[in-house]
Please model this.
Amino acid sequence: MDGDGASAVADEIGGTAVRLDVSLEGDVAGLVESATSANGPIDLFCANAGIITSGGLDDSNEVWERIWGVNLMAHVYAARALIPAWVARGEGYLLHTASAAGLLTGIGQLPYSVTKHGVVALAEWLSITYGDAGVKVSCLCPQGVRTNMLLAGGDDESNFLLPGSVAPEEVADVVVQGLTAERFLILPHPEVAEYFRRKADDYDRWLTGMRRLQARIASLTD
Model:
C-alpha cells in the first residue's frame, strides 16, 4: 500500500511499481495483469504481505477480518490469478511467506497464528493439487526478521524473537537457496525444524513447554 516506497524500489532495480491492497481480490488480479503486461508471463510470485496483532479472543471482528484478508485471503487471490495460466504453461512458482507461527504458534498472537497456519495449509494443498501440473510451491516460515513489524515490538526482553532475529538480506539468501533446491519448507532459522519435530513427537509436552514460555514472557511485562 506504500506506493511511494514501491516506486522508489522500482526505480532502483528497474521494476514496475503497483500500489494495491492485497486483501482485495480485484487489486491482486490487477497486479498480476500489470506485471504480465510489463514483463510477460510470471515465473515466480512472492506472496509476502502481512500484518500482525498481539491480541487474543478480545480482538474485534474488524481486526479479524482485516488480518484474515491480508495474511490469508491475499494468498488465495494470488493463486486464483496465477495458477490457471501456470497449469496451461506447465510451469510457475509460488512462494508463500507464512511464519514459524504457522508451524508452531505465536505467544499472545491469536489472529496472526491462525492466519499463518492457514497459509501453510493453503501452500500444502496447492503443492499437492498442482505439483504434478508443473506448479512449484514453497512456504517460507521464519522466526524473527528485523523488519518494521518486529522492531515495532520494542527492544526489551518481552520482544523475545529479537535476540535471534536475522536481517531481511539473510532471509533473501536462504530463500534463493530454497527456491533453487525447490524445497517446500524454507526455514531461515534452522531451529524451527527441530521445534516442529518436537511438536509432532509429543504434542502435549510441546504445549506444556509453550505455556512455560508464555508465563516467562508474561513475567517480563508485569
Remarks:
- The radius of gyration is 18 Å.
- The CA atoms of residues 107 and 214 lie 6 Å apart.
